[in-house]
Amino acid sequence: MIITTEGIVLRQRKIANNRRMIVLFTKQYGKISAGTSVNEKSRSKAALALRPFTYADYDIFRGREAYSINSAQAKKSFYSIGEDIDRFMAASAFIEYLDKVLGEETPMPGLFDLALAFLESVSRSRSSAETLLFAFIVKSLRMLGVAPELSCCTGCGKSAESFGEGGFRSFSVTGGGIICPDCAEQEKTRPDSLIYQPSFDIITVFGYFDSRPLATFEKVDLKPDVAGVVRDILAEYTDRYLGIDVLRTSIGLEV
To answer: Which of 134, 161, 202, 246 has its CA at a distance of 20 to 30 angstroms from the CA of residue 101?
Structure first.
């Protein structure tokens, strides 16, 4: 059976008989691994479609137990990502995140569109690409069903609005969202508690990431101290709820 789909290359590796295994995030079929004999080092459009940071159309033979790429044509190669170390590191972490969070053959068209928007934005970014990565991860958490609670205390359920400005300065990773001052003090007595108390309004920051298009963050830089706290919170949160931490590890692409 031949299937046609658009996809984004996540990674590739060499296998036997001069073939390569390409891991694709496809819009119609989710993440799939497909073998190919196309020479990745040639200058053909099919070869370009096998490289990381590439968005392409694929004709794939779907067998009983495996996929094989018959032909491919690149729609867009985000080659400019590799020209800047900041972009490259953020995009590499993005690829690693997708590869780990996606289940095999589980379509997630909304996440696919968000991933494509990230590649578009990071290739144009004139500010910290890491801010774009933060925004992408926050948006993806809702799609994956593990978004943090930002409207009320995860301990007692009191609304954030009832405490007024500055009432919710704490974020509980163990609780899964914001936490009021009283509940934060109680939770601190637990041996497994993990609470952050940033000097800024975490609700506003995460809410801004979640509600604005990714293109908004092409020219946005967080202050270094804010970026550091956001990085730590997201790293701990994704590790706890997804078993993934790409924000504090060395990322590399397998080629």
So the answer is: 202
pLDDT confidence of residue 154: 93
Strands 2-14 and 195-196 turn out to be unpaired
**Domain enclosing residue 190, as ranges:** 80-255
**Does residue 100 share a domain with residue 61?**
no
For residues 68 and 91, state if they share a domain: no
Q: Are residues 178 and 138 in the same domain?
A: yes
* Sign of the alpha-carbon dihedral angle for 167, 248, 145, 190: negative
Same domain for 204 and 101: yes
Q: What are 36's strand-pairing partners?
A: 20
C-alpha 128/C-alpha 231 separation (Å) is 13
Question: Phi and psi for 2 in degrees, rounded to 5?
Answer: -100, 130
pLDDT for 239 equals 96
Residues 151 and 175 in one domain: yes
In the chain, which residues have pLDDT < 50? 250-255
pLDDT at 41: 62
Q: Are strands 170-172 and 2-14 parallel, antiparallel or unpaired?
A: unpaired
